[in-house]
Amino acid sequence: MPLLNAAYRGLQRELAENGVSVLAEQQDISLPVNGSTGVTNTELSDVSSPQLPTDCLMPHMLWERATANTSDVFVPMEKFMSGGSMLNLQPSSYLRLWEWREDKINLVGATQAITVRLRYEKILPQLTLGTDPVQIRSASDPLGYATAALAARSRGARALAADLLGAAQMATEKLIQRYVRPEQIKGRRRKPYGYRRRVVYL
Fold first, then answer.
1. Which distant-in-sequence residues (6+ apart) come within 8 Å of 29 by Cβ?
2. 84 vs 61, which has greater pLDDT?
3. Candidate from 78-82, 107-111, 187-191 with smallest mean pLDDT
4. Alpha helix locations (H) across the chain?
5. Angle at 103 between CA 46 and CA 59, to 5 degrees
6. How far apart are CA 196 and CA 191, in angstroms?
7. Dihedral-angle region of residue 141 (phi above 0 means left; psi in -120 to 50 means alpha; beta otherwise)
8. Which member of 23, 101, 149, 180 lies 3.0 to 4.6 Å from 165 by CB, making a disulfide possible if both were Cys?
9. Contact yes or no for 61/111 (Cβ under 8 A)
């Protein structure tokens, strides 16, 4: 089972690096105003209060609304992409921006209590029994080959391990293609400048 779980985590990382989100979760987090600073938290991490969900691997999107206005809709927050520091901005009534850095979500802070809706990629739970569900669809081939490769390498069968690892990589690539190909947009050739549609009379 430890070898299977190692292959399981490795497959999730491989899929994530190719833009495939395996398991998404959504959770609402309330950020109250700190009495000493007058603003909400400026970060969500494993040690903050409130803290990130324990199964959060990486956030995808964040929305916000004022905690007092439960009838309002959640408004999307903008992800800060620049390499500079966004924390130099003055807090306002809403958070507006967020960034993911060093395994924590950095925020500007708000002057009122805010409820943040967090959608994130979830850490896959470990497989402990043979009846536990594998939460990656059609993953039996890459997981089987990768687990066998790890077992062969632990026994010193390097040639067999290399062969099985190659089979696992091929199966993983096919799985990635299965996820990614339907989302790709077919390329269309741009019409040349000055092109005019002509009507031909017969």
1. 44, 50, 115, 116, 117, 118
2. 61
3. 187-191
4. 2-17, 140-154, 158-180
5. 95
6. 9
7. alpha
8. 149
9. no
- The Cα-based distances of 20 to 29, 81, 105, 133, 175 in angstroms read 25, 21, 21, 19, 10
| Two structure tokens written together for 65 | 């609304």
Q: Domain-by-domain residue ranges, the chain?
A: 2-19+124-183, 24-122
Q: What is the pTM of this model?
A: 0.67
Mean pLDDT of 39-64: 91
**Which region, left, alpha or beta, applies to residue 102 given φ > 0 means left and ψ of -120 to 50 means alpha?**
left
Q: Is the confidence at residue 118, as pLDDT, over 50?
A: yes
Q: Is residue 23 pLDDT above 90, yes or no?
A: no
User: How many CB atoms sit inside 10 A of residue 34's CB?
Assistant: 12
Q: Write out the two tokens for 152.
A: 């062969």
